[in-house]
Amino acid sequence: MSSIRKVAVFGVSLRELRHPDNRRSPPSRLRGHHLHPTCRDLLFLFHLQPPRSFPTEAGSIVHVADYSDVASLTTALAGHDAVVSVLGPGAMAHEVPLVDAAVAAGVKRFVVNDFGWGQNPRSYPEMVEVGARRHVAWDRAREKAASNPGFSWTGVTIGNPIDWALRRFPRMGFNVAEHTAIIYDSGTEHFTGTTLAGIGQAVVGVLSHPEETANRFVKVRSIKTCQNELLEAFQEEAASGKPWSVEHAKVADLLEGGRQKHQAGAPGWILDLLVAQLYEEGSARCVVAASREDSDADLLGVREETAREVVAKALSQ
Ligand SMILES: NC(=O)c1ccc[n+]([C@@H]2O[C@H](COP(=O)([O-])OP(=O)(O)OC[C@H]3O[C@@H](n4cnc5c(N)ncnc54)[C@H](OP(=O)(O)O)[C@@H]3O)[C@@H](O)[C@H]2O)c1
């Protein structure tokens, strides 16, 4: 396959492109590639700014296209070598038209929307149901690759997006603002995660190694860790500041509470079950790659990070 130069990214928000860090160059996660991010925010801007494509502050070109209209998406994707989809869970219905448009436009590689646990056989049954929504587009990409020799796909399985998730979800056990921790069971269950920098590098790695990454899920990790190790790192980072206070809880209680919410149709059950399966002792439910050698990290240029580095990133976000 010839090299990939021009990449369309679906799901990078205009807010992100306007972030001060991104003003002088495309988002660092994908620096080095020619980006054409698209975003539904721009449907609004389109009414204010009639041209159908225009440069952003980040120096990239933004196209306006209707996600449900394969013909309009095909026009927007003409001349692109690759598509990366990082659309949010609410946009899963758009994924199949995106794949169809990419094939019609002659795109060579479609990075399907995973950035999660891939086809994790150890997920709780309730989580398998949630994941099934994105499998429809994965299956479409497989089907299209089988019948179109110039088209291929890759899924990027990253496990826990760890620095972002630690900061965003105190339910994971670390309340970064309050310096309070909840350690589930013994705190020794290991899981794997990838930092935002690692996720960006993984995508760049896929686009830079199209042959080796064609038609498969790549397994990515920045770290294999456990709650106790992360707590120690948080405490070391806070050595001269406010100390962390620690409580203990049981995974079984978290799981039971989450399942009750699920049965009652109440919100919050997905996060409860995600955290329970992360820390369920002896299950290795959330290990994408048990060792670095078992992952694609070296191929993709994703480096292993220490718990201290990961928590420093979580604290700085
Ligand atoms: N491994 C994990 O545990 C984990 C956790 C979270 C996310 N992820 C992955 O990260 C990626 C992004 O997820 P997220 O939760 O961060 O997504 P998000 O913030 O909800 O949305 C990301 C992008 O998708 C667009 N979008 C969302 N809903 C849309 C809709 N109905 N129609 C059109 N565009 C829509 C958003 O557009 P606007 O800017 O216009 O809103 C935004 O640009 C996904 O691949 C997801 O699987 C993984």
TrEMBL record:
Record keywords, A-Z: NADP, Oxidoreductase
Pfam families assigned: NAD_binding_10 (PF13460)
Domain of life of the native organism: Eukaryota
Record InterPro entries: NAD(P)-bd_dom, NAD(P)-bd_dom_sf, NmrA/Isoflavone_reductase-like
SUPFAM superfamilies: NAD(P)-binding Rossmann-fold domains
Domain NAD(P)-binding: start-end pairs: 57-163
Family recorded in the similarity comment: Belongs to the NmrA-type oxidoreductase family. Isoflavone reductase subfamily.
Protein name listed in UniProt: NAD(P)-binding protein
Lineage: Eukaryota, Fungi, Dikarya, Ascomycota, Pezizomycotina
